[in-house]
């Protein structure tokens, strides 16, 4: 028994070491990856029921030559812990703005694009100045740019988050509260934050027909957000039943595989056309 306990301990240490090693490899590879254009963006449509596509969310992808495809769920976290997140955010904004400008020139259409921000971006002193400059590009209509931030930004420092949001809203951009309902926020935040939109987390969508309690929480979030005049976007919508329930509950925007997976900019026009005909 002593032997097997020892073996288990060695296995545990090995697994820890392997995990640590992978984190270190990823952290080191992010810097080169940005320089070598190993990252790219996909765009997922947000659909207004009976009206069509109202915008898209930019989602980063990374195909590393040495490590293979790595999910943002894995590398964003590592980038946050190793001081690289703001480099990634700036890369996303630059690439996204370029692609948006090209798309609009090619299709002569106005497309609203949302970008994810890390709460660390919000607390970075020069980041607002960076955004002001990026948004001053005459080919960018700031009304078409949205930023998605998680409630953790508010929990860390309410005043800083509020000031940040106030500034980007004055530039004409809109703000969505991402992953709403999953953190430790209280509903009273909703009366104070200056966000235009809340994104109901896919956790709630997934549980709509599995958990009566989660469904009641979802109903309450939707009803409160509506009373406060906010736009509601539900994410992770995969089935017709989820779509219909959320539509009937008054959700304004539906995002999820039910309409489309995230697609490359080259496929976006075709995807938007297909959805609008649906
Ligand atoms: P998120 O912002 O909550 O994005 C939604 C995630 O759900 C995306 O995963 C999307 O591909 C996925 N998704 C969309 N529809 C469905 C569906 O119907 N079913 C299921 N099961 N999943 C769906 P993705 O692209 O892997 O991104 C994961 C997370 O990584 C994002 O969650 C976001 O927190 C972060 N992330 C992605 N791109 C960026 C970025 O450019 N900057 C930052 N800071 N974070 C990013
Ligand atoms: Ca998001
Ligand atoms: Ca989300
Ligand atoms: Ca999420």
From TrEMBL:
Domain EAL: residue ranges: 23-276
Signal sequence extent: none
The protein's name in its UniProt record: Diguanylate cyclase/phosphodiesterase
Covered residues, full protein: 411 to 688 of 696
């Amino acid at each position: 028994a002593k032997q097997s306990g020892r073996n288990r301990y060695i296995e545990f240490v090995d697994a820890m070491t392997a995990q640590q090693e992978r984190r270190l490899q990823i952290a080191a590879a992010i810097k080169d990856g940005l320089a070598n254009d190993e990252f790219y963006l996909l765009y997922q449509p947000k659909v207004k029921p009976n009206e069509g596509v109202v915008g898209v969310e930019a989602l980063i992808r990374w195909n590393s030559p040495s490590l293979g495809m790595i999910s943002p769920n894995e590398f964003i976290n590592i980038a946050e812990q190793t001081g690289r997140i703001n480099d990634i955010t700036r890369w996303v904004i630059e690439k996204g703005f370029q692609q948006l400008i090209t798309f609009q020139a090619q299709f002569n259409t106005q497309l609203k694009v949302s970008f994810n921000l890390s709460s660390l971006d919000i607390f970075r002193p020069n980041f607002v100045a960076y955004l002001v400059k990026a948004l001053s590009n005459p080919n960018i209509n700031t009304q078409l740019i949205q930023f998605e931030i998680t409630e953790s930004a508010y929990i860390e420092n309410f005043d800083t988050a509020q000031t940040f949001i106030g500034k980007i809203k004055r530039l004409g951009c809109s703000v969505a509260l991402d992953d709403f309902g999953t953190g430790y926020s209280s509903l009273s935040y909703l009366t104070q934050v200056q966000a235009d939109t809340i994104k109901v987390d896919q956790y709630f969508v997934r549980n709509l027909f599995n958990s009566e309690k989660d469904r009641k929480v979802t109903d309450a979030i939707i009803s409160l957000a509506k009373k406060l005049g906010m736009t509601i976007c539900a994410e992770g919508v995969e089935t017709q039943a989820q779509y219909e329930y959320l539509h009937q509950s008054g959700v304004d925007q539906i995002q999820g595989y039910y309409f489309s997976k995230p697609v490359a900019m080259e496929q976006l026009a075709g995807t938007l056309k297909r959805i609008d005909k649906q």
